[in-house]
Every structure is written in C-alpha cells, then in structure tokens.
Amino acid sequence: MKKSNDLMVMPVVNTPEVFPTLTPFVEWTPKTSIALTHLRKTTYWYFIRNALLVTVIPIIVCLYFFHLWGLFSLILLIIAILLGWYSAGNTGWAISGNQLLMQVGHSFTRSQYVIPKKNIQSFSLHQSIWMSSKGLAHLEVNLRHGNHNQEIELRYLPLGVAQEIFEWLKKRH
Q: What is the model's pTM?
C-alpha cells in the first residue's frame, strides 16, 4: 500500500517468501531472506520487567478497591510476562550490503524494517548507568516518514553489537 510516499507492505505471504515476492516491485530490497541476529535469552528479563512495571499500578488499584474480585487482575501479570517475552524474542538486526534490517516486537506485533543507509536521518546510542554495568545499550535510528519522523529503537543490545552498528552507520560512502 502506498500512502504519502511511504511504502508499507502488509503480510499476505509467508515470511520466507516475502523478499523474493517483493523484489520485482521494490528493487532495492534484499532478494532473499536475511537471517537476523536476535538477543540472548538473558536480556529477556529486561523486557519482561518493563512490561510488569506497567501492570503493577492497575493490579494494586484493583486489589485495593475490589478485594476478592481484584484477584482477577493478576491475569495481567501473565499477559505482561508473555508480552515482554514476545517483544524480546522478536528483536533482531542485520546489516546486508548498504541496508540495515531492524525487527522489533511490540504489543504482540512484529515489524521488520529494511532501511537503506542513505535514508537514515540520524542515529544514537543510549546507555544508562545501570546498563553500562551490564554491557547493554539502546540503539535508536530516525527516518523521515512522510512529513514526520519515525524512530526505530533496538533495546538492550549487547554494547559491542550496538557500537558495531553505530560505527557502520557513521561511515558515509
């Protein structure tokens, strides 16, 4: 679907067949599927923790005001754990030629972006004090998306990987 000069592909073919099917229509995409690198399982906890933090307040409110009926809100804990696990499991990246492939999972959806290096407006590497002790970082890439900015962020990457992608992005050929 084309909308305001942005290309959006809706999934109507199996994932392994996406790029071979897409290439005749969009020449700059990879011709075959690119294997993405995914996060280590040890980083999944950070995604689960973040999802759990969002559910704590509604659960406390439900338990406080609705007592026994509020116990049903504990189902949110299971949903939050599954949501965090899904988000972490669907975070991936690859560099292929002059393109950066980024995949993120959010709210039980998965989005994969094929980004030509020349289309990247800006990028940054973020690391909190706590992340530095764990050797993790967030990589943020900004693209022009129609008349506004689209930010794609890979969270909790190993620092070495994040720096490698950052250095690749800095080299403009």
A: 0.83
pLDDT tens-digit map of 98-125: 899 999 998 888 888 988 888 888 999 9
Which tokens hold the place of 138? 């967030």
Chain position carrying tokens 């897409």: 22
Can you give the chain as a three-state secondary structure string?
CEECCEECCCCCCCHHHHHHHHCCCCCCCCCCCCCCEECCHHHHHHHHHHHHHHHHHHHHHHHHHHHHHHHHHHHHHHHHHHHHHHHHHCCEEEEECCEEEEEEEECCEEEEEEEEHHHEEEEEEECCHHHHHHCEEEEEEEEEECCEEEEEEEEEEEHHHHHHHHHHHHCCC
Q: Which residues pair with 125 in a beta bridge?
A: 139
Whether residue 103 contacts residue 93, with contact meaning beta carbons closer than 8 Å, is answered with: yes
